[in-house]
Design brief:
alpha/beta; 22% strand; binds NADP nicotinamide-adenine-dinucleotide phosphate; 6-stranded mixed beta sheet
């Protein structure tokens, strides 16, 4: 299956994704998948389109020479619409623009433009699924395409596909997890007595923080991820505004130290459940919690993430990403690309959420 890809956004995640496609070229070929990057569109660094295909070096050279700058920004929607004229068996938008946690835009509009062009969407951006999961899945159904966002939630952890593919007929009654790498890294550093700002600076240098780092520190990133998980796994129909939220600042240092002295570890935990039982509304929250050391979430160091699902009848399931980071997010996009290609090969645009 040849899959023509257009990348909306070419920052940390977009660049790592394109390099990973090159590194996994042989493995993808064995699966019969030929991804071809036909276009890249950014906000301030230009845009290019070439049906012959572009590798990372060509993109870097040609974006620099594309002559589009901040004074003449390309319309991302127009570039996405160009996917319509591609002749490949599958056309795909890779959404990696920054998160606007208060609206999910402009990514939601990019996703809709892709559907109109008959293209599938894979997104590392949480906005569309956090704000409009139900509507976008319905629109994808009508367009006969897939909308997948494994990379949006927990770096590379296959959490959405785990439930979708391996837990048929099971209900997710709730979840709790450590799902923001930056704050977990800072909390681990605070326990060692390291300064808050130094730990934060290391995460920024590694490209792990959100473009607007206050999203990580104020709990917005975790709230958006909790909304995605609740929407995708529990049909919650909520937005990040519905998630009660606590953040992390330097003032947490004595709390982290005191928790450790008392045989606990302070973690920023995202939770969701249906307190009034099956069919009731979902309540979700992000809050600092002191967890006993034998809690699987308390064992997470540095950038590690983990999620515990409370499922019926499969029981409680914990999945851990011990070393999250950019490469894992890029891998989640590759995994979604493979899912799309397999669905296309099987003759089904979308075969389940
Ligand atoms: N970094 C991570 O570890 C990580 C992990 C999981 C998920 N994510 C999510 O992945 C997404 C990308 O993260 P990132 O770290 O790669 O961000 P980034 O480095 O800031 O890159 C964002 C890219 O999007 C472009 N862009 C901004 N607005 C645009 C628009 N309207 N149309 C087209 N392009 C636009 C930017 O263009 P310019 O270059 O011209 O500014 C830039 O190329 C975010 O939604 C983030 O929440 C990130």
């Amino acid at each position: 299956v040849r899959v023509d890809l257009l990348l909306a956004g070419y920052g940390h995640v977009g660049r790592r994704f394109v390099r990973l496609l090159g590194e996994l070229n042989g493995e993808l070929a064995i699966l019969g998948i030929e991804p071809v990057v036909v276009g890249v569109v950014t906000a301030r660094h230009g845009a290019i389109f070439d049906r012959a295909g572009l590798d990372a070096n060509q993109i870097a050279l040609r974006l620099a020479g594309s002559g589009i700058n901040a004074s003449t920004p390309p319309s991302t929607l127009e570039w996405v619409a160009r996917l319509r004229s591609q002749g490949a068996e599958a056309r795909l938008l890779v959404e990696t623009t920054p998160l606007d946690v208060r609206s999910g835009e402009p990514a939601i509009s990019h996703v809709r433009a892709a559907f109109e062009a008959g293209a599938h969407v894979i997104s590392a951006n949480k906005g569309p699924a956090a704000w409009a999961w139900n509507a976008l899945q319905a629109e994808a159904d009508r367009a006969g395409v897939s909308f997948l966002c494994e990379g949006a939630v927990m770096d590379g952890i296959p959490i959405l596909s785990l439930v979708r593919e391996t837990l048929p007929c099971a209900a997710v009654r709730g979840f709790r997890g450590v799902i923001n790498s930056t704050t977990n890294y800072i909390l681990t550093a605070l326990e060692r007595g390291e300064p808050f700002d130094d730990a934060l600076a290391r995460m920024q240098a590694a490209g792990v923080t959100e473009a607007d780092v206050s999203h990580d520190l104020d709990g917005w990133d975790a709230a958006a991820k909790a909304a995605v998980l609740a929407n995708a796994l529990m049909s919650a129909g909520i937005t990040p505004f519905d998630v009660a939220r606590e953040g992390l600042g330097p003032e947490a240092a004595p709390r982290a130290a005191a928790a450790l002295t008392a045989g606990h570890r302070l973690k920023l935990v995202a939770r969701a459940s249906r307190p009034s039982g099956p069919g009731g509304p979902v309540e979700a929250a992000v809050a600092l919690e002191a967890l006993p050391l034998d809690d699987p979430l308390a064992m997470l160091d540095g950038q590690a993430n983990a999620l515990e699902l409370d499922t019926q009848p499969a029981g409680r399931i914990v999945i851990t990403q011990r070393d999250g980071g950019l490469e894992k997010t890029a891998y989640a996009l590759v995994a979604d690309l493979v899912t799309v290609a397999r669905r296309v090969a099987a003759g089904a645009g979308r075969t389940g959420r």
